[in-house]
Design goal:
It is a single chain. The strands form three sheets. Strands 1-4-5-8 form a four-stranded mixed sheet. It has a four-stranded antiparallel sheet with strand order 2-3-7-6, with no helix packed on it. It contains twelve helices and ten strands. The protein folds into three domains: 106 residues, Orthogonal Bundle (Butyryl-Coa Dehydrogenase, subunit A, domain 1); 110 residues, Beta Barrel (Butyryl-CoA Dehydrogenase, subunit A, domain 2), CATH 2.40.110; 147 residues, Butyryl-CoA Dehydrogenase, subunit A, domain 3 (Up-down Bundle).
């Protein structure tokens, strides 16, 4: 088994690290405090090829795998989570087009995403349907040559910015299987009846846009159906198999940043006349954090490497997402503890890490859901 990265992969990591460390630190605190983001930074990242590296070169993507995308995600998250989401999650849902879309849909949507001309959102979660997506009640009814969409969505990343919105809606309400009732349908921004309400007051990743969406007799062509009608739930599971890898990389990036901040602070902070890094209990925390970071990275590397080779191991993917998300939260808490009272001040990065970390424990499947997936995979072996 070869754990050596290729020169190209190392170059991608170094380029992502250089970009993030150069562009993010000076604006991260401002974006966090004001809940805003400068889209010029996203456009710059697109021009440098960091956005959509997993998409086919035919559509302007990098032609790499999900592993390379996750490597970039880790580097960006290690500098600032909110900015990383605002840049790299602008293509979330593009996988639906590569896997299930028509050639016309791919040509229409994908080049705009990677070139910095459009942002995508994927609208699944509803006020009463989170961990149970099959319980989503937004409807799309055929009327003539159009779909008529009604309902609402909650916690939608990029919902207020997106040009393209993939809406998860009930199209086959009479299907006896609750997993055969939904479809994905493309809705474009400014379509009459679509309203977006930007959400404020988030705990973390405050630079990224999150919105509530409402659909009131929103009409789109029947050709906006993505893939086969009634297969939306299964398409969503395929999307989750990739999205959860991204979240694992996010958690690893936050955990690594927490470790780096903890090491830096404890080396310079003195108590009883000596750096606190010399204390054994401090060293124990550093050792635990370093081990968890390495384990989380190895998990998502293996899972992403497998997906890129067509091996979809849902148990492994769920392990990576749950463990790395948990590690992100734990390492952020340990780093804040190492900072003592100073960690409570927003002038220290660790305070922002602590707030940003919790979301990786929640989105794309809570850790409770991931544990169920892991257990199911083990019991079925």
């Amino acid at each position: 088994m070869d754990f050596t990265l290729s020169k190209e992969q190392k170059d991608i990591i170094n380029a992502a690290r250089e970009f993030a460390t150069k562009e993010f630190p000076d604006v991260a605190q401002e974006f966090d405090r004001n809940e805003k983001f400068d889209l010029n930074l996203w456009e710059k990242a697109c021009k440098l090829g960091f956005v959509g590296v997993y998409l086919n070169e035919k559509y302007g993507g990098g032609g790499y795998g999900f592993l390379e995308h996750c490597m970039i995600m880790e580097e960006f998250f290690a500098v600032d989570a909110g900015i990383a989401v605002a840049i790299l999650c602008t293509t979330f849902g593009s996988e639906l087009y590569e896997l299930f879309g028509t050639e016309e849909q791919k040509q229409f949507v994908l080049p705009k995403l990677v070139s910095g001309k459009a942002i995508m959102a994927t609208a699944v979660t509803e006020p009463d349907a989170g961990s149970d997506p099959a319980g989503a009640t937004t409807t799309a009814v055929k009327k003539g040559d159009q779909w008529v969409i009604n309902g609402s969505k909650m916690f939608i990343t990029n919902g207020d910015l997106a040009e393209f919105i993939n809406v998860f809606a009930v199209t086959n309400p009479e299907n006896p299987s609750r997993h055969g009732r939904h479809s994905f349908i493309l809705v474009q921004k400014d379509t009459p009846g679509l309203e977006a309400n930007k959400l404020h007051g988030k705990l973390g990743v405050r630079a990224s846009d999150t919105a509530e969406l409402s659909f009131s007799d929103v009409k789109v062509p029947l050709s906006n159906l993505i893939g086969e009608e009634g297969k939306g739930f299964y398409q969503l599971m395929e999307l989750f198999n990739r999205a959860r890898l991204q979240v694992a990389a996010m958690g690893t990036g936050i955990a690594r940043a927490a470790l780096e901040e903890g090491v830096k602070y404890t080396k310079k902070r003195k108590q009883f006349g000596t750096p606190i890094a010399s204390f054994q209990l401090t060293q124990a925390k550093i050792a635990e954090m370093a081990t968890m970071v390495r384990a989380a990275r190895n998990l998502y590397y293996e899972a992403a490497w497998s997906v890129d080779r067509g091996i979809i191991d849902q148990g492994l993917i769920a392990m990576a997402k749950w463990y790395a998300g948990d590690v992100g939260v734990k390492c952020a808490e340990m780093a804040l503890q190492l900072h003592g009272g100073y960690g409570y001040l927003d002038e220290y990065k660790v305070q922002r890490l602590y707030r940003d970390a919790k979301i990786v424990d929640i989105w794309e499947g809570t850790k409770e859901i991931e544990k169920l997936v892991v257990a199911r995979a083990v019991l079925q072996q």
